[in-house]
Design goal:
CATH superfamily: Alpha-D-phosphohexomutase, C-terminal domain
Distance between the termini: 17 Å
Largest sheet: 6 strands, antiparallel
Order of helices and strands: EHEEEEHE
Helix content: 25-40%
Strand order of the largest sheet: 2-3-4-5-1-6
CATH architecture: 2-Layer Sandwich
Structural class: alpha+beta
CATH class: Alpha Beta
Number of strands: 6
Number of domains: 1
Shape: globular
CATH topology: TATA-Binding Protein
Oligomer: single chain
Length: about 90
């Protein structure tokens, strides 16, 4: 698996984690695992969202034959669209 790590500054990290999980739940499974919201796609991608004080910490993983940068961009676009009023920005390492 290839993984991209990112963060998003927000006062409501739990809200955005829950919203993204609900939005994508039909594409696989979504639930809580060890304090994080984890979305597992039927196609092998995984998104882990961990709410911390003032931050949403994101790990976007894809199988080795997939495009990790593109998947990370899709995750960021969804989160930014959900939080358009806050002008949210995901920063990838």
């Amino acid at each position: 698996m290839q993984t991209r790590h990112g963060t998003m500054l927000t006062d409501r990290p739990e809200r955005y984690a829950k919203q993204l999980a609900g939005h994508w739940a039909r594409k696989g499974s979504a639930g809580e695992e060890e304090g994080a919201t984890v979305i597992r796609f039927d196609t092998g991608q995984v998104v882990e969202l961990r709410a911390e004080a003032g931050w949403l910490v994101i790990a976007a993983s894809v199988p080795d034959d997939d495009d990790a940068d593109r998947f990370a961009q899709v995750v960021a676009e969804h989160l930014q669209r959900f939080g358009h009023r806050e002008e949210l920005d995901v920063v990838w390492e």
